Fold this sequence. Notes:
3 helices, 15% strand
Amino acid sequence: MGTPSVPCGRRAHDLAYKLNGYNPGIIADEEAPGCVLEKRTAAKKGEVPLWGQTANFEIRHGKMRVRIEMDGLFGIGATAMTWLGFSAHAVEKNKPFLSDTGYRSFLGVNSLSLEPGITPDAFAEGVIAAFVDRQLKGKLKKIVPLRPRH
């Protein structure tokens, strides 16, 4: 699908809207057109997706392994943001990570410039590298297990 673009996301939503009889609720449940389209076009688990595909794959930043869940064309803000959102999950919970919870969401990211040919994995790597550099000042955090509430 090339580099992401808002018009592509808009076209996907328009198609799902048409398939839904021009009614809202294109991602209302598992049988809704948007959900069906998303499932049928998702990248295989572990594969780096094409832009617009929902995906679950792994990248590295230094020694840190990160599982990326990338939103597809029906993700939050897909029709309004240039870059599709993604979340980062710690693969190795006993090693330092981006957050002390082992999870970090990246929505509406604008820390990278649009460049032709950038792939979703390179995009996620670049965003994470910029986050570690700028926000964490190069220091990863120890994951702290949640304590049960009594």
